[in-house]
Amino acid sequence: MGARPLLNRRLDGHGTTIFAEMSALATATGSINLGQGFPDTDGPEEVREAAVRALRDGRGNQYPPGPGVPELRTAIAEHQQRFYGLTYDPDTEILVTAGATEAIAAALLALLEPGDEVIAFEPFYDSYAACIAMAGATRVPLTLRAPSFRPDLDELRALITPRTRLLLINTPHNPTGLVLDPTELAAIADLAIEHDLLVVTDEVYEHLVFDGAHHPIAALPGMRERTVSISSAGKTFSFTGWKVGWVTGAPELVTAVRTAKQYLTYVSAGPFQYAVAEALRLPDSYFDGFRADLLHKRDLLTDGLAAAGFRVFRPAGTYFITTDITPLGEKDGIEFCRSLPERCGVVAIPNAVFYDNADAGQSLVRFTFCKRDDVLGEAVSRLQQL
Ligand code: PMP
Ligand code: GLN
User: 39 in a domain, yes or no?
Assistant: First the structure.
């Protein structure tokens, strides 16, 4: 095939995702997997049954409509109204996607031109870097630094150039657990308006905020017309394999994202779309119970990791905990995570892979706590051997 590399150069350096690598390591070594973020218990039985019913009744077994089934788009609109007072037209302002992952890809492919700059919080969720690269744009990291991981808003202002097209934000933030507060969101909104920037906001952990509250940036004055909001059923309802996500935004933005999305998957997850419509209408007790359960697990793992000698940054949101391994006499998170299964039968994720400025994340390691209590307890007792 000659000397030319097969992989498009835009994807150079974007090899196997860290989640795939670490989950494979967990399987191969029989380790407890606190790496990739997926629960070890499925979501509500009635939601699972709703999917079975849809399959049996022949709803969604053939191509659903491109924007998503009307039942789900209506349920998403109701959810945005119920939790945030945001009004969206199910026909023009909502798009169902193959998970948040496709929503991110479609949004970035639709809204960016080669040469555009995208400012994103670093550490960034791995698909951001790859999708910005596939769009031919350039990522510009705003580094979130321990211990608070709060964004430096002066630094953000200084990163904006005439080429900046888009701010890519994520709150609650994976992997740090940062939840942007109203002051930070207002400052980000002001900058977006002042510089006429688009905002893409990834809010897949919207129902996992333990300290403070989740505030969608789209609710701020002047933001609706420039914001693409993304969420997903995977995290909120503990069905990460269903891959049902969505985009909400002004009609022109959603139309642009849909134009890209229709050539990625066209449509997906027909019967699951009906089940997620029912899930979104679950009573408050479901959402409160889910959060309370994960809050308990957060504290269980936070305390356990601290007792095992890690420096722990207690997350305000998400189901991830970022730790620093320096107190254990370690400094390289990648090496640490590669050797951890052999040393004590636990898998974690090195935050370094989510940084351009690798120094800032070198000694940081992420653990997920969306696992059964007995599994978390066993992981902690294994980690105490370190
Ligand atoms: N964004 C963030 C911040 C995530 O952690 C994840 C992983 N669930 C995704 C997007 C992808 O979500 P989905 O599984 O719905 O594609
Ligand atoms: N969002 C999950 C995490 O951060 C992983 C999803 C994936 O493997 N792409 O662990």
Answer: yes
Report the alpha-carbon distance of residue 189 to residue 221 in Å, rounded.
8
Ligand 1 pocket, mutate which of 121, 232, 243 (most atoms under 8 A from CB): 232
Indicate the number of domains in the chain.
2
| Stated length of the chain | 386
Question: What are the tens digits of pLDDT across the range 262-292?
Answer: 999 999 999 999 999 999 999 999 999 999 9
319 within domain boundaries = yes
Does the Cβ of 201 fall within 6 Å of ligand 2? no
Same domain, 153 and 248: yes
Question: 93 lies in a domain?
Answer: yes
Domain boundary among 279, 301, 325: 279
Instruction: Please identify, by atom number, the ligand 1 atom nearest to the C-alpha of residue 233.
Output: 15
Which pTM value belongs to this model? 0.97
The protein residue with its alpha carbon nearest to ligand 1, atom 14, reads 99
CB 197 within 8 A of CB 167: yes
Same domain, 52 and 146: yes
- Parallel, antiparallel, or unpaired: how do β-strands 364-368 and 227-232 relate? unpaired
Question: What residue ranges line ligand 1, CB within 6 angstroms?
Answer: 37, 99-101, 125, 170, 174, 202, 204, 232, 234-235, 240, 243, 245
In tens, the pLDDT along 117-173 reads 999 999 999 999 999 999 999 999 999 999 999 999 999 999 999 999 999 999 999
Angle made by CA atoms 167, 203, 124, in degrees to the nearest 5: 55
**2 Cβ contact list (under 8 Å, min separation 6):** none
Ligand 2 atom closest to the Cα of residue 204 is: 1
